[in-house]
Amino acid sequence: MEKSLFEQMDGTCTQAGDYLLPNLTVPEEEQKSIGIWGQRYARYLKQHHKILYYNLLTSWKLNAHLTEIDRQAEEMFLRLVKQMAEREGVTEQLKAENQMEWVCRMNNIRNRAAEVVNTELVISS
Q: Reduced to 3 states, what is the DSSP secondary structure of residue 45?
C-alpha cells in the first residue's frame, strides 16, 4: 500500500475500524495570564472580527496576541492616569488634606483613562 502524503511527512496513523486516523498533537502553548484589557479585546474580536479571532485561535497565536495587547493597554492606562493626575493637580498633598476629594478626582481620571484605552487600543487594534 502506498504511503499517504501525511505518512510521507513522518506523520503516523492509527487504524480505527475501517478508517486511518492521523495521530495529531496540539503544540504546547505557554500559558500566560490575560488581564482585563486582553479579555475585553478577545470579546471584541469574537463579536466583531470573527475571522481574525478564529485565525489567531487556530494558529495558536491568540494567547500571545492577547497578552501583548493586555501589556500595551496596561502601560497606556497607567501612563494616562499619571499624566492626567499631574495635569489636574491631584497630588499626595491633596490625598493627605482631603481624601474624599482625592478619591473622587482619581476615580474620574481612571474612568477617563479607561475610556481612552478602550477606544484607542482595544477597539481600534
A: helix
Q: Measure the CA–CA gap between 61 and 1, rounded to whole angstroms.
A: 38
Categorise residue 24: left if φ over 0, alpha if ψ from -120 to 50, beta otherwise.
beta
Asked if 88 contacts 103 with a C-beta cutoff of 8 angstroms, the reply is no
Inter-residue long-range contacts of 22-29, CB under 8 Å, 24+ positions, other chains counted: 26/60, 27/60, 29/60, 29/63, 29/64
Task: Render pLDDT for 32-42 as a digit per residue (tens, 0 to 9).
Answer: 789 999 999 99
In this structure, what are the phi and psi dihedrals at residue 23, rounded to the nearest 5 degrees?
Answer: -85, 95
Calculate Rg over the CA atoms of the chain: 24
pTM exceeds 0.90, yes or no:
no
Q: How many CA atoms lie within 13 A of 119 on its CB side?
A: 6
